[in-house]
Amino acid sequence: MAYNSYLYIVVFLGLSLLLYYVTPKRLRWIILLLASYVFYCVSSGGLIVYLLISTVSVYICGLWLGKIIEGYESAKASTPKEERKALSEKVTRRKKLVVFVALLVNFGLLAFLKYFNFFADNINVISKLLNLNIAIRSRRIALPLGISFYTLMAAGYIIDVYRGKCRADRNPCRVALFLSFFPHIVEGPFARYDQLAGQLYEGHAFSYKEFTFGAQLIVWGLFKKIVIADRVNIVVKTVFASPSAYSGLVVLLGVLLFTLQIYAEFSGAMDIVTGSAQMFGISLVKNFERPFFSRTVAEFWRRWHMTLGAWLRDFILYSVSLSKWFVKLSKLIKSRLRSNTGKIVPTLIPLFLVWLFCGLWHGASWKYVLYGMYYYVIMALGMLFEPLFSRLFAALRINREGRPYKALQLVRTLVLVNIGMLIFRAPETKTAFSMLRSIFTGFDPKALTNGTLLKLGMDLQDYFVIGAGGIVMLAVSLLQERGFSLRERIAEKNIAIRWCIYFAAIFAVIIFGAYGAGYNPVDFIYAQF
Amino acid sequence: MDKLLEILEDLKPGVDFALEDDLIEDGILSSLEIMTLVVELCTEFGIEISPLDIVPENFKSAQAIYALITRIRDED
Amino acid sequence: MRDTKAKPDISGVTAFIRFVLFALTFFILLTLASRILIPKSNRDLLYFNAGGIFSLPKNSLDYVVIGNSNAVEGFSPLDIWNGFGYAGYTCGEPWQNTAGSYYMLKTILKTQSPKVVILDTDTLYERKSTLTSLENDLTIAVQHYYSVFRYHNYWKRLSITDFLMKDNYSWHHSDYGHMVLTKINAYNGSKYMSPTDKIQKMTPQIEYYLDKIVNLCRDSGIALILVSIPSPTYWNMAQHNAVTQYAASHDVKYLDLNLNYQDYGLDWATDTRDRGEHLNCYGARKVSLYLGKYISENYRLLSHAGDSAYEYWNRDYASYYKYISTSAPSN
């Protein structure tokens, strides 16, 4: 059930809200859980089994961890100080075993369902190269809805219990609700247990403000998805389907429009789901913070799909670089390599794992690995050359906090990100490279005047809508960048002005939306990961 | 403390770490630099830093970082 | 997190009144938008040539055919007119499902009062997932009540005169919804409709809307006939069995023209345009004459042959006949 469907907006969300608020507060979580399971079954049918396996495994392992931790706390007091360390080590070993079991179950399922064919293909290639007689047949595996999202959230819960960030939950329903909550199961944002589980479980009183603000956010999300993203989708599809048929300028347009599409769509989806949750009085974490105002690629990734970045940082970067064996390894490296490099290399290793994971998470193919590595290389080079740059800029007396330099950084980041998007969207890595080449070599300005742009699936009026919609998006972003809360400000206006704005927004979606005859419904891109 | 300041100075030359009191908010230390710093602290001071300790409050100033180191040492 | 002290929450009564007023305004605006953002010429209404029905005199039709491309290409009202003097129209939409048929019938009944409704059974089987077809049905309903959801892209062609909300339903479709195709691509496949006990059930949603159609016809005093227009690609015995069962239990007539196509002379070598998916105009002619005969034998419909009010039918038949008898078949 897509978040921009009539079924979701009119029927599902409407009914869930109604039921939620007529149910006694104490029992409201039941409505959420039921709604989430209905949502899941309607979308994914029997594949809910996998979600249930994850839920049960994480719940039991959580309890098990909790028991070990409790046992340790009570035994600690009665243990003499000298033996405490040995005890703590023993307990840690046992805790690690439990975490291992939980992660094995959850990532095992993910690996099998999502990556089986990828592994099989690669093993087949290797065995062919080595003349081995092994061939694994690829299978058609139906992917359960949101598995890439809930698996990471499930793992996050277990690790948080292990680390002591949150307590093991005795209530299986709360765990189930946390993992299946319908606004975030399809494409995030990744939630942390200590932040969300309590909120979901406690009943929220109806709040006029939360309710209306949530609804407004949904309309804004729909605007970005239906008016902007779905409109440019046709051009993006056309260009990426046969990039060699077009000159560099058109390819460039295709890439820029894809970046616009994926941003409008993904952030739009986040607005729809955050708005939905807010209508229940639940606040989800932010996933976007106007990423295109970033000055560096690293900053871009802190502001784009923020919760994925946070997950990777907390659970991969920290887990690796703070582990004992890794600290030992860094010591060794430092003793060998002196100067700056010796200090940076220990960061580069876990960073490599982060980006490898990030790439593969997006999809089971080498293309996505390349996508991750692309960003890894940019970041690594940035870190390695930073001392050189700072000396260079100091020597040239360039003010790195000055406006011209900042503007240059914005453009540079934009260029790098668009190249990343190109890799991401291109059907194959080979195509990505040839597209890049054509942008830089086959630049033919004739495409602007000979009418090619109007043959890609958008007419002049469509370009106009994109232009106007883009300006609205930009204006809103600029205001937000200055700490301006749009919904608050509108709420302060008198009712006539307010309603004019709301109706204008709603009817902009209805009238200028790219849906209905001539448009195929477009699945959310991130819902496919 | 001196050793800590030395490490910080090495990590990011030109910043007066003894005076700065909001390294994170002011954007002086990025998350990757903090990671480098944490690994450094682990090897130099022989301590184990838990991911839970990597929060802005513990890294906002040299004093805060020092306090973190002492606390972890005492716990051991 | 959010600034809550800026404005205190308003009371429940105020909130309720506001919601109601907001909803009311919303629906008024929707109705208004649906009147403005809609093609004013009937040529651009509905799909295929179904919009042509709006140009016909009120209550002038004796029967209508509802369905998808199978019906639009496989049924010729003019041949029935020539043979039996009945006036009818084929209202089809691409990939129409039963929900679509139901709302199409409701639309037709606003201006016409046919005695017989023929529903093409190909609409009873969708090749879609439950979720897609649920969304599809909902879309059709929403579009029926607020046409702005269907015609919103009309903003691109909007002019000042559209705000006058004046319709111009003068476009006349001279083949009465029938898409006259002279292409021939023979069906050489194996015999189809081999006997089986299997029953390919309709989905609950389809049955829900089929029930609604049956009831709507009953309430309006219309005789409903379910008809399977011949199509080796889309029809089979298991589907036939399901529809037979439904028709029997709901007291509705069902005619499967796939079973006895030899009886009325259908020839798969010459009467299909795309190897057995759709009929061409030659096939449509045979099917229509057969159906006309069936209607004349089973329902008491008045022939309008010779009625001066229906003179335009004769003119349209003459030009249709000229067209099919002079155009060379193509492929």
Helicity level of chain B: 55-70%
Approximate strand percentage of chain A: under 5%
Which descriptor suits the 3D outline of chain A?
Answer: globular
Number of domains of chain B: 1
Instruction: List unreliable stretches of 5+ residues of chain A.
Output: none
Distance linking N and C termini of chain A: 16 Å
CATH hierarchy, class of chain B: Mainly Alpha
SSE order of chain B? HHHH
- Secondary structure: number of strands of chain B: 0
Please state the CA-atom Rg of chain B, rounded to the nearest Å: 11 Å
The chain-level mean pLDDT of chain B equals 82
Q: How many distinct beta strands of chain A?
A: 0
Shape category of chain B = globular
CATH topology of chain B: Non-ribosomal Peptide Synthetase Peptidyl Carrier Protein, Chain A
Largest sheet of chain B: none
Helix percent band of chain A? over 70%
Average of pLDDT of chain A: 90
Estimated structural class of chain B: mainly alpha
The rounded distance between the terminal residues' Cα atoms of chain B is: 19 Å
Describe this structure in words.
The complex is a heterotrimer of chains A (529), B (76) and C (331). Chain A has 21 helices and no strands. With 529 residues, chain A is an all-alpha fold. Chain A folds into three domains: 24-203, no CATH class; 205-284 and 430-529, no CATH class; 294-425, no CATH class. In chain A, helix 4 (81-129) packs antiparallel against helix 5 (147-163) and helix 13 crosses helix 14 (339-362). Chain A is globular. The two termini of chain A are 16 Å apart. The mean pLDDT of chain A is 90. With 76 residues, chain B is mainly α. Chain B has one domain (2-75): Non-ribosomal Peptide Synthetase Peptidyl Carrier Protein, Chain A (Orthogonal Bundle), CATH 1.10.1200.10. Chain B has four helices and no strands. The longest helix of chain B has 15 residues, at 31-45. Chain B starts with a helix and ends with a helix. Chain C has 331 residues and is of the alpha/beta class. Chain C has one domain: Rossmann fold (3-Layer(aba) Sandwich). In chain C, 41% of the residues lie in helices and 8% in strands. Chain C has helices at 12-36, 69-74, 77-84, 98-109, 130-145, 148-151, 204-219, 237-250, 281-298, 311-326, and strands spanning 63-67, 88-92, 116-120, 223-228, 253-256. In chain C, helix 8 links the parallel strand 4 (223-228) and strand 5. The longest helix of chain C is centred in the N-terminal third of the chain and has 25 residues, at 12-36. Chain C starts with 11 loop residues before the first helix and ends in a 5-residue tail after the last helix. The relative contact order of chain C is 0.17. The model of chain C is unreliable at 1-6 (pLDDT under 50). The A-C interface holds A 1-2, 5-7, 10-11, 42-43, 206-209, 283, 459, 461, 485, 488, 491-492, 499, 502-503, 506-507, 510-513, 516-518 and C 1-4, 6-7, 9-10, 12, 15, 22, 25-26, 29-30, 33, 37, 130-131, 134-135, 138-139, 142-143, 148-150, 152-153, 155-156.
